[in-house]
# Entry
Amino acid sequence: MENKEKERKTVHNDHSFGDLMVLIWEKITYFFQETTDIHKGSDQVGTIKSIMANMTMKGANVWLLFSAIIVASIGLDTNSPAVIIGAMLISPLMSPILGVGLSVAINNRITLRTSLKHLGVAIVVSLTTSFLYFALTPLSSVEATSEMLARTSPTFLDVLIAFFGGIAGIVSGTRLEKSNAIPGVAIATALLPPICVAGYGLAHGEWWIFLNAFYLFFINSVFVALATYLIVRLLDFPFKQYVDEKEKKRSQLLIISFVILVIVPSTFIFFNVLKDLRQKQFVKQYVINHFEATFNTTDKIDATDSLELTVFWFGKPMNTTDSLSHAGVLSEKRVNFRVIQSNYGQDYANHLKRSIQSEELLETLQDEKKSKERLLEEQNNLQLKIEDLEKKRSLLSSVSNEYKATYPELERIGFAEVEQTTDSINCIYLPTLFFNWNKETSKEKITDYEQRITTSFQKRFELDTVVIRRY
# Structure
């Protein structure tokens, strides 16, 4: 009997523990679904209307794009990130790309044609405007600036930025209550600068700059459109309904053909970017493993597809066997290898290393010194303000006692700068005197005394206006 009772309790405890785990799992699942649910607050009809209304590149949008291209070109030419960011904020270039993603997602052939047409118009306007700027302006740089060159080397990070920037853009655009994410998306997806750099490449006959920059623009555009497609399908936007079955099949065939045409080069580009990333990582690791300890290496990317590792070798010359071994290993990863033998010995290399380290240390110490000087200056300013406040407080206390002695009916007097609202936005701070009088004091005396004290107070502290209030 006792054994049966123990078995019954064990089974009961097992069931209780199992039920508890199921309940916890259900609560965690519910919390996760509730937290990540983007269906709430979405506006399907409003989103479709908004994207379709803004994706046309004509009228005001063309003028906005023209202005944005000029501003971005100036920013790239003067190497000014702030100007480039400002241009991206006013650019309408993202709208037709969102239109392409939406059209594919809802199977709307007409909207897809319109989006592609106006995206083509945007590209032509952008290339033409940037080409004319860089070809005609006397301020144009002879050589590409660092901001331009930064748009000629697409990386895997550019793919991620474009994709997640596109997600942020379409999620923000599908809300009933619009958020402030759109300006950030315009900056993050960086659609404008590459197309401007492509125009620079055309104007100066630098075809590798043109191709690489346009290649980056294409990557960004495709992954913004892909992000739009995925979010629109996740939100279950309705497919376009066709009355004629043949028309529906024709539309689906066109959409599928377009998707294939985009996916094939996009997939090639994506894996090419991944391959380049792995290649660079391999070179960096190879440098760390074989040359970093001697502090005598540098690596750079040629204008071509190949990567080049140049080793500056100090001291005893590198023997032929080692040189060929390094070249063989690196050539398997499509990396060119060469050694530049320095006439200086290893002692010079160590001296150079120490000099560089000393310069870095000196710069760090100088930065710390400047930081401490700024902190000390702030502390001194704060101390002066505190001393000034203490003087004013002491003077006010003395004046308060003086007024109380002159006017026995005055029980309490105070001073403060009180915020006064001038309209719905602006406000000012007015000097204000607060009075507390003996209850037996007549109104005539109070008015007279307050006027006298206020006039005296204004003269003493050189104030234009003093407001009177009572406690």
